[in-house]
Amino acid sequence: MIKHIVMWNLRGDSPAEKRDCIAQLQRSFESLRGRIPGLLHLEIGVDSSRIDYACDVVLYSEFESQEALDGYAVHPEHQRVKRELGDLRIARHQVDFFSPAVLAVAATPSI
């Protein structure tokens, strides 16, 4: 499994404009559910800390393989979302990492 995490800061000169941008981003990404082969999980989180170095929004997604993530990058529905949101972002950060589907932890009994 590969996890794909993207964080954005969005434009908005007022709290209302920022909320509108966040809502549009949420709607656009949520429209991808069930449309991308190999996309196992998609979640949008909105920052609640309001600290100055926090990003506004995070996308957390899981794909069954690197090939599925590669397919997502060029999928027409994902390209549509990118076009819809292109001018909303002022900063973007991304991390992709492999994660086992099940993590086995070996316990050592204490003596």
- Number of structural units classed as domains: 1
How is the largest sheet built, in terms of strand order?
A: 2-3-1-4
Q: What's the total count of β strands?
A: 4
CATH architecture: 2-Layer Sandwich
Task: Give the ordered list of helices and strands.
Answer: EHEEHHE
CATH class, named: Alpha Beta
The DSSP helix count reads 3
Cα end-to-end separation: 36 Å
Q: What is the rounded Rg? A: 17 Å
The average pLDDT value, as a whole number, equals: 92
Describe this protein's structure.
The N and C termini lie far apart (36 Å). It is globular, with a radius of gyration of 17 Å. The longest helix is centred in the N-terminal third of the chain and has 16 residues, at 15-30. With 111 residues, it is an alpha+beta fold. The protein has helices at residues 15-30, 66-74, 76-85, and strands at 2-10, 39-46, 57-63, 89-98. Helix 1 runs antiparallel to helix 3 (76-85). It is 32% helix and 31% strand. The chain has one domain (2-98): 2-Layer Sandwich (Alpha-Beta Plaits). It is built from 3 helices and 4 strands, in the order E-H-E-E-H-H-E. It has a 4-stranded antiparallel β-sheet with strand order 2-3-1-4.
How would you concisely characterize the structure shown here?
The chain has 111 residues and is α+β, with helices and mostly antiparallel strands.
Which SSEs are present, and which pair or pack?
Elements: E1 2-10, H1 15-30, E2 39-46, E3 57-63, H2 66-74, H3 76-85, E4 89-98
Antiparallel strand pairs: 1-3, 1-4, 2-3
Helix pairs in contact: 1-3
